[in-house]
Amino acid sequence: MPNEIIRHPRLSSDAVRLLAWALSMADEALEPLSKTARRAGIGKTAFSRAKRELVTEGFLHEWRRQGGGGRWATQQMISNVPLTAIEAEAARDGRPGTPSPAAGEPKGRGVGRPLKKTVENKPNLPSPSPAMQVSQGKQREGGQATSASATAPRTVPAPLLTRGGQALAAVSHSEPRLRLSGQDLKTLAPLAADWLQLGATMADIKEALTQRLPDRVHSPAGLVRDRLIRKRPPASVCAEQQATEHRGDEGRAAPRVAEMRECAGEHVQPLLFRPVDGETLCPSCRCAGAEARVTAAVDAAVRGGAAIRELLRSPRPRSS
Question: What secondary structure letter does DSSP report for 319?
Fold first, then answer.
């Protein structure tokens, strides 16, 4: 199991345990993931949450198919590396995941279970350093090739790298056609961070990525990469815009706190946070609100069940 799974920032302990337990099983073992969760001591609620996390990060893929007798079956595939939908289908069907095979003979078990034909494991690469540079290459969108050699991003600091990933995550969650996996966000974060370093805002990145999208996007990561490179704003224009927006009447640069917003929730003291996509509540208040809504829904269901049982136990009036 790669170290990236153990240190994954968005996978809970239950999700990591479930994935580790499933990966440790033999290749020929055919067992639903729900049964694996029971054997691992993970409850139903925790299993549902862990399963959602694995699907979101690309470690779990499911397909429902109808057999010859009309019965429906669910096929599940897990992997020790995040896979896109296209890569998962290729692994399921036994097709190569990349146009050119990797050098050397495959070692260890392949990606996915319980498929017999799978792609080989990707190498356990070290985590990228805070200051990353994107390799130069060619991307394509709408039949137009764009050379990245003239617009390759410069080295960006770690805080901007984090904000670049947050900007791409916000676009991915708001636009279903641009769903990105965790690996895609890590790979494309330096390109978005370069926009921020040039003076662009998160709103500028969102507008550039979501404007005039095709009805169907076959490769969200490829489209995002192409637009971030091809529409990269000139440094001179961004510097002038940033100087105009962030300088006050006295010519002093605006502090970083100007980008932050006060949380609208209840706090003992005012709490400032940096919104990603126009939020009015800090992450803690949003999580607390979601938990309160779930608790209220559960209480309402319990009260409704008790009322129905009481109604069923009450004697019925006899008809004359």
Answer: P
* 254 pLDDT above the threshold of 70: no
Structure tokens at 294: 């779930």
Please say whether the beta carbons of 194 and 204 come within 8 A.
Answer: no
Q: The pTM is what?
A: 0.33
- Residue 113 and residue 29 in contact, taking contact as beta carbons nearer than 8 Å: yes
Asked whether residue 206 carries a pLDDT value surpassing 80, the answer given is yes
pLDDT one-digit tens code per residue, 127-158: 444 334 333 333 344 444 444 333 444 566 77
Burial of 59 (C-beta count, 10 Å sphere; 0-12/13-18/19+): buried
Q: How far apart are CA 37 and CA 56, in angstroms?
A: 18
Number of Cβ within 10 Å of residue 200's Cβ equals 22
* pLDDT for 214: 87
CB contact at 8 A, 9 and 183: no
Rama region for 58: left / alpha / beta (φ>0; ψ in -120 to 50; rest): left
For the CA atoms of the chain, what is the radius of gyration? 25
Other C-beta atoms closer than 10 Å to the C-beta of 30 total 8
Distance, CA of 105 to CA of 29 (rounded, Å): 24
In sequence order, the β-bridge partners of residue 273 are 261
- In the structure encoding, which two tokens stand for residue 280, read together? 């009015």
* CA 221/CA 82 separation, integer angstroms: 13
Task: Say if residue 28's pLDDT is above 50.
Answer: yes
